[in-house]
């Protein structure tokens, strides 16, 4: 079951979509205008957003753009009555993940949603990101600001542990545990690795752009800079 947001002003189509998706065991919230749809979308927690383009108040393109400006990664499936290539390209360039042209068969809608959810699950398992820092947990690659950064295996393990708990303090004991409680890994060893991580990822950044922070006597926290966090 997935929690889905539908933003659609056509009454009959909306009823059909809600009925079909609920029969498929999804939880659906239906908004009938753009302003309400954007407000509900900003609440977060949606597995995917089904977004009509032609909406009263605030159109689908504007909603998509605003969500992506907020760094909201929720998958967006655009529903459009227009079959022009330019319209579809515009939506994809604004950050939509897929589109479906009306009228459509309900089985195709279900298949598109399933593909979006499957892709999102795979992507979530593979990458972690904080501001402009991206960690590929499958390839063990790290970039910041689009530039690749070379890390040792232990530096990568520390970074991954912090990124998986972004915004929360991670104790030194917890960080030591990621190496299986290796007796050779003491508190000072973790400190040394953290100094190296900061040098590689934070040293050329202003104080306000830095991601790594020490909570003295406790551990470390990886935190998104205030100016890049969603408003």
Automatic annotation (TrEMBL):
A biological process term (GO) from this entry: regulation of DNA-templated transcription
Domain named Response regulatory: residues: 3-117
GO MF annotation: an example: phosphorelay response regulator activity
SUPFAM superfamilies hit by this protein: CheY-like
Keyword vocabulary terms for this entry: DNA-binding, Phosphoprotein, Transcription, Transcription regulation, Two-component regulatory system
One family name in Pfam for this protein: Response_reg
Residues with PTM 4-aspartylphosphate: 52
Cellular component per GO, a single term: cytosol
Residues in OmpR/PhoB-type domain copies: 125-224
PROSITE patterns assigned: OMPR_PHOB, RESPONSE_REGULATORY
Gene3D superfamilies for the chain: 3.40.50.2300, 6.10.250.690, Winged helix-like DNA-binding domain superfamily/Winged helix DNA-binding domain
UniProt DNA-binding region: 125-224
Xref: InterPro entries: CheY-like_superfamily, OmpR/PhoB-type_DNA-bd, Sig_transdc_resp-reg_receiver, WalR-like, WH-like_DNA-bd_sf
PANTHER family: REGULATOR OF RPOS
Stated name of the protein: Two-component system copper resistance phosphate regulon response regulator CusR
Provenance organism: Armatimonas rosea
